């Protein structure tokens, strides 16, 4: 596969990142893993973006050919993809890891290349993933390679990897200043890192740190905070048990309004309504202009037009009633064809100053994921696509014969099947009955049972009021399923559950572009 180089000769910015992401999106396996990582471990995703930026700057500084720069940057963006099936309890453990936990962490490079084995990007990124924890003096893992035996791609990635870890928050260490981090890099010359590359990196490090570095946020635990915001910040420990609707409804200091392409309000949470002395129900259906005070109407109209056409970045700060300061952020939403289909408007009360603002911005980062509709809504709405990707991933773990998705919601049962032979009515009924029984028994685990010479594996999709469901996988009868494979199936199950929950949430909140009803999507 040849990479297009049109994205090169540009600073590492959102445009380059989105070009890299569209290369990833062209490959279903890499794309599914990348999106799953982004939504499961947002902090690891931010780290990968930082490392890929360092890699881009360093590779360009070294004068490597353009294709090579792009290849290495892409490898860096995926270097920690294998962390996706590490438990958050280990990944975010604040103290020292025990021997067993450490051995789980050390598997992530090999997990990564195994997961990407059938991806067409594999050959471009394998070195960066497999060898990024090798050390120059041979003391690293996986293979204990040393010096120039370590592929150049991995030696470059490990410098960004190291620098980003030093200047960022990790549960087990303090954040180092820029100067302290550079000192550490110098100490690692020719022990941990390739000294010649460190020297080159030091010359571009100020540019990276000043202009490109994104702080990575880790989940805050409730105990660490006396504010009740923390419980609304997505807690990655909860293994994706995220109820977006609840979060949006209850965020104490972020007003959320969702408008359609005609500026009509589709959704409004309590805080947004309170700011306007109203109840949410009174505002839904009106236009966003209607609910402004008279002197704001023209201003808001102009602002919306500018944001829609891309002339404004969507931020505004204003003084509200009773001496309060309000910040608004308008986030455009596009449908799957990329056409404008509405806007998410976030209102924050920033009267209490910067600290609060920072807390709210953390929320905002998370919420903007919801609104990053171009790629994401497509994934959410196209359940078939999600399931096909899931089938491709499961096939990497097991010899997959058949895959079904069974969802029980509001007393209705939907059954989706991947593959050629549809279930006949009896088989369908039988499968659904079995799933109902498992739900009644409160099943939370993976269940494996014999089925007419094959095996059936029921992967429980996260329970909740919204839906209960299963991925049902049929495999060859002799298959033995290891703990690690079970863990991975659980991760895949979580990813599917997450996509479905978003689908259910968004379809309840409002009608977008080409939205199909849930029943249609699932049949
Ligand atoms: Fe790593
Ligand atoms: Fe890393």
Automatic annotation (TrEMBL):
Pfam families: HD_5 (PF13487), PAS_4 (PF08448). Residues 22-217 form the HD-GYP domain. Signal peptide: none annotated. InterPro entries: HD/PDEase_dom (IPR003607), HD_GYP_dom (IPR037522), HDIG_dom (IPR006675), PAS (IPR000014), PAS-like_dom_sf (IPR035965), PAS_4 (IPR013656). Residues 256-311 form the PAS domain. Gene3D superfamilies: Hypothetical protein af1432, PAS domain. This is HDIG domain-containing protein.
């Amino acid at each position: 596969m040849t990479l297009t180089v049109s994205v090169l000769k540009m600073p590492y910015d959102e445009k380059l990142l989105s070009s890299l992401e569209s290369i990833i999106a062209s490959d279903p396996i890499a794309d599914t893993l990348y999106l799953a990582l982004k939504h499961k471990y947002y902090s690891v995703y931010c780290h990968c973006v930082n490392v890929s930026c360092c890699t881009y700057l360093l590779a360009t500084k070294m004068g490597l050919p353009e294709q090579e720069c792009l290849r290495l940057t892409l490898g860096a963006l995926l270097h920690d993809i294998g962390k996706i099936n590490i438990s958050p309890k280990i990944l975010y453990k604040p103290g020292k890891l025990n021997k067993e936990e450490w051995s789980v962490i050390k598997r992530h490079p090999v997990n990564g290349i195994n997961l990407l084995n059938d991806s067409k990007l594999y050959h471009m990124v394998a070195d960066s993933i497999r060898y990024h924890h090798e050390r120059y003096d041979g003391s690293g893992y996986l293979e204990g390679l040393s010096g120039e035996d370590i592929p150049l791609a991995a030696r470059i990635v490990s410098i960004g990897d190291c620098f980003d870890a030093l200047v960022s928050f990790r549960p087990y260490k303090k954040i180092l200043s820029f100067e302290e981090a550079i000192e550490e890099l110098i100490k690692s010359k020719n022990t941990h890192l390739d000294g010649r590359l460190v020297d080159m990196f030091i010359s571009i490090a100020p540019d990276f740190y000043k202009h490109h570095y994104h702080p990575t946020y880790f989940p805050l635990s409730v105990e660490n905070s006396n504010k009740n915001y923390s419980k609304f910040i997505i807690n990655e420990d909860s293994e994706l048990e995220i109820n977006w609707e609840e979060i949006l409804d209850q965020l104490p200091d972020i007003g959320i309004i969702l408008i359609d392409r005609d500026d009509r309000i589709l959704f409004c949470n309590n805080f947004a309504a309170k700011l306007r002395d109203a109840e949410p129900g009174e505002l839904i259906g009106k236009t966003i202009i209607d609910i402004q005070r008279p002197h704001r109407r023209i201003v808001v109209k102009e602002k919306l037009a500018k944001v829609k056409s891309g002339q404004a970045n969507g931020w505004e700060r204003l003084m509200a009633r009773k001496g309060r300061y309000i910040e608004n952020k308008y986030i455009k939403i596009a449908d799957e064809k990329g056409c404008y289909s509405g806007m998410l408007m976030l209102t924050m009360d920033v009267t209490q100053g910067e600290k609060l603002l920072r807390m709210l911005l953390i929320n905002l980062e998370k919420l903007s994921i919801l609104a990053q509709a171009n790629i994401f809504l497509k994934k959410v709405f196209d359940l078939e696509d999600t399931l096909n990707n899931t089938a491709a991933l499961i096939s990497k773990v097991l010899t997959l014969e058949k895959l079904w998705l069974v969802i029980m919601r509001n007393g209705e049962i939907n059954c989706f099947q991947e593959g050629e032979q549809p279930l006949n009515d009896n088989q369908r009924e039988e499968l659904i009955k079995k799933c109902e029984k498992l739900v009644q028994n409160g099943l939370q685990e993976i269940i494996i049972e014999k089925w007419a010479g094959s095996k059936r594996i029921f992967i429980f999709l996260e329970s909740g009021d919204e839906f209960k469901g299963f991925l049902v996988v049929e495999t060859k009868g002799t298959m033995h399923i290891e703990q690690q494979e079970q863990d991975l199936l659980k991760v895949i199950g979580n990813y599917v559950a997450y996509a479905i929950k978003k689908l259910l949430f968004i379809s309840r909140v409002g009608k977008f572009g080409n939205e199909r009803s849930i029943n249609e999507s699932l049949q």
